[in-house]
Design a protein that fits this description.
This protein is of the alpha/beta class. The protein has twelve helices and twelve strands. It has helices at residues 10-22, 60-68, 86-92, 104-119, 122-130, 156-167, 181-185, 193-199, 219-224, 242-251, 281-286, 303-323, and strands at 2-5, 28-31, 49-52, 73-76, 95-97, 148-152, 171-175, 189-190, 202-205, 229-233, 254-259, 292-294. It has a seven-stranded parallel β-sheet with strand order 8-7-6-9-10-11-12, with helices on both faces. Strands 2-1-3-4-5 form a five-stranded parallel β-sheet, sandwiched between helices. Helix 1 (10-22) crosses helix 12, helix 2 (60-68) packs parallel to helix 3 (86-92) and helix 4 packs across helix 6 (156-167). The protein is globular and about 60 Å long. It starts with a strand and ends in a 13-residue tail after the last helix.
């Protein structure tokens, strides 16, 4: 099957080519640097499938153009699918597949890296030493042992993070509509969102982006947080209301902030903009705080995760080519 692969970087080509060969799939992968949108969808002509990433736009207009060119499958190389209009895909007769799980350790371990870096001010210490400043003023941290970590969302990533933090000797609180019995058996206590925010020294987000979780961390949530608490988001950017968080940083309610995702990241992340002036004033404001650490959506970026993502993506395409159904299809919403 010919597949138009959008938002391609060199590492995408490396891992997808390897998976295509290792699985003996033989798909024709046409790599495109352009992000998928209504304007670029025409680049998928002659392809039976498109392969898309987190910041590609699969709205009704894009899907209509794809369907008009004969595309029958959208193979997402991500777990999230909030960038796809599933109702429109259903109308156009396009199946949508995703990678439901790859390496929960990758994202969980990156979360821990952000917690440790923010707590011990590693990012600031690194820059100081390079400037010949060896003073310790302003670099005071705290022991993680005995601290309370609030984990919002205990799917595979959140559960992995909870177990890691227990290894540091932390007390772990969790919020999830569907409690994990294994975590409960390990001593993780489930609480309401309000209780978790009030009791946690560190709050870390691991939930999907839905209408219910959009701006889950808003001004009201920030006001409920323990004064000076750390907030980490390695899930989806729009779970956090960035302006509310900036206000929380200014008031001191949020003492440390770690973001691997950002609600308006589509025009920023995965690109080299070092020679340009940032046009996003909100994001630029975030970067002025010394207690903020931002990484550019790299939590997933490990050898193991990239291998798993590529292999699952190729398997989805192969299954669709053989049977008309991908292995991990995103269910279409019920017709109404």
């Amino acid at each position: 099957m010919k597949v138009a692969v959008f938002s391609t970087k060199s590492y995408d080509r490396q891992f997808l080519d390897a998976a295509n060969a290792a699985l003996g799939a033989g798909h024709e992968l046409a790599y495109l640097e352009a992000r998928l949108s209504a304007q670029t969808a025409v680049l998928a002509r002659d392809a039976g499938a498109v392969c898309a990433f987190v910041n590609d736009e699969l709205d009704a207009a894009t899907l209509a153009t794809l369907a008009g060119q004969g595309v029958k499958l959208v193979a997402l190389r991500s777990a999230g699918f909030n960038n796809v209009d599933l109702a429109a895909a259903r109308r156009e007769g396009i199946a949508v597949a995703r990678v439901p799980a790859y390496s929960p350790e990758a994202v969980a371990e990156h979360t821990v890296a952000m917690i440790l870096a923010l707590n011990r001010h590693i990012h600031r210490a690194y820059n100081r030493v390079r400037d010949g400043n060896f003073a310790l003023d302003g670099l005071l941290g705290f022991d993680l042992k005995g601290r309370t970590v609030g984990v919002v969302g205990t799917g595979r990533i959140g559960a992995t993070l909870a177990r890691i933090m227990q290894g540091f000797g932390c007390r772990v609180l969790a919020y999830d509509p569907y409690p994990d019995a294994d975590l409960q058996a390990r001593g993780v206590a489930y609480a309401s969102m309000a209780e978790l925010l009030a009791d946690s020294d560190i709050v870390t987000l691991h939930c999907p982006l839905t209408s219910e979780t959009h701006h889950l961390i808003d001004a009201q949530a920030v006001a409920r947080m323990r004064h000076g608490a750390m907030l980490i988001n390695t899930s989806r950017g729009a779970i956090v209301d960035t302006r509310a968080v900036i206000d929380g940083l200014k008031s001191g309610r949020i003492g440390r902030l770690g973001l691997d995702v950002y609600e308006e990241e589509g025009d920023l992340f995965f690109e080299d903009l070092s020679e340009q002036v940032l046009q996003d004033d909100v994001f630029a404001r975030l970067l002025t705080f010394p207690n903020v650490l931002v990484t550019a959506h790299q939590a997933f970026f490990t050898i193991e995760a990239m291998t798993a993502i590529a292999e699952t993506t190729i398997a989805n395409i192969s299954a669709f080519a053989a049977t008309g159904r991908p292995e991990h299809e995103v269910p279409a919403p019920a017709a109404g």
